[in-house]
Amino acid sequence: MTLPDTITLTRPDDWHLHLRDGPALAAVVGASAVQFERAIVMPNLRSPVTTTDRAEAYRERILSARPDGSAFSPLMTLYLTDRTAADEIRAACASGFIHGVKLYPAGATTNSDAGVTDLRQAWPALEAMQAERLPLLVHGEVTDPEVDVFDREAVFIERVLAPLMNDFPELRVVFEHITTADAADFVITGPERLAATVTAHHLLLNRNALLVGGVWPHHYCLPVLKRERHRQALLAAIGTGCNRLFLGTDSAPHPRGAKESACGCAGIFTAYTALELYAEAFAEAGMLDRLEAFASHHGPDWYGLPRNVGTLTLERQPTPVPEALPFGNDTLVPFRAGGEVAWTVRNATGRMA
Ligand code: DOR
Ligand code: ZN
Known about the structure:
Layout: E1 6-10, E2 14-17, H1 22-35, E3 38-41, H2 52-65, E4 73-79, H3 86-95, E5 98-103, H4 123-132, E6 136-138, H5 152-167, E7 173-175, H6 181-188, E8 194-198, H7 200-204, H8 208-211, H9 228-239, E9 245-247, H10 256-259, H11 274-284, H12 291-303, E10 311-315, E11 319-320, E12 325-327, E13 330-332, E14 340-341, E15 344-345
Parallel strand pairs: 2-3, 3-4, 4-5, 5-6, 6-7, 7-8, 8-9
Antiparallel strand pairs: 1-10, 10-15, 11-14, 12-13
Helix pairs in contact: 3-4, 6-9
């Protein structure tokens, strides 16, 4: 199949992004602002974003950290805990700038210690979310030490997500960063109120990229990379054109030392070449024609927001990726560091470094 030299898309959004705070925020926000009009910003700061007041203050810090002239718009989320009150949910809805509430099972991932230990504790908050139509954004992995790390997403569906959706028959749910055939099936055969984000790295890599030829800490993320058949299932699910699957990078920067460590932390920084990576994955799978809807239409349609009016053009020219980027007083190793990505966003002015 011959590939086009350029493709022009409606300006896209990132429906799952970690921006951090302070100098780290200032270092990374530009990369997303160049490519995306809006992003759903994850609330797992060291001191989590558990209230509307905190979300408002964090939103202000993000707006101030944007490059000059940027119109990038952060869509805020709240961090669900065992103690989130129904009133807090109603306040979040009334704010107009909070677009979802994130469920981190306690201990599942980075800064999830304050997450939910027992979903029954969160019942009043979930009831309020259902009533207000405020989506629950789910990190879908069980934390049971008996469950193999590669099975934690599939087991989560059976033990937590399916029962939750039965208990709350109108709750809107985004199954974040799905990684398995099980999750892809669950979503595409599910109801309209269930959607999912898919990362570029889970479309490009299988678990060999983590463990063959050595341990590759910059490919470690959660949910962890899976077998090739799961990667293929994610691509196939998107290939069906399902309008409840959309772009969410889960770009998650950590300082180099925290990744290249005896106990490296989870997270892959893809924001530097996010759209280029998706274009590469879609082109390899012969479905570039699906990219615009996935990146720019399905997300706003599902969230009930307007589609963006601008456009963005990708050229089939390689983008070189630096070995490292500045990250406050630290450095950050981007995905494909020292290599290249097969596409280039043409209007990528204001890139970091
Ligand atoms: O790899 C990940 N990194 N997965 C997550 O769920 C959290 C994220 C982070 O915040 O670093
Ligand atoms: Zn995430």
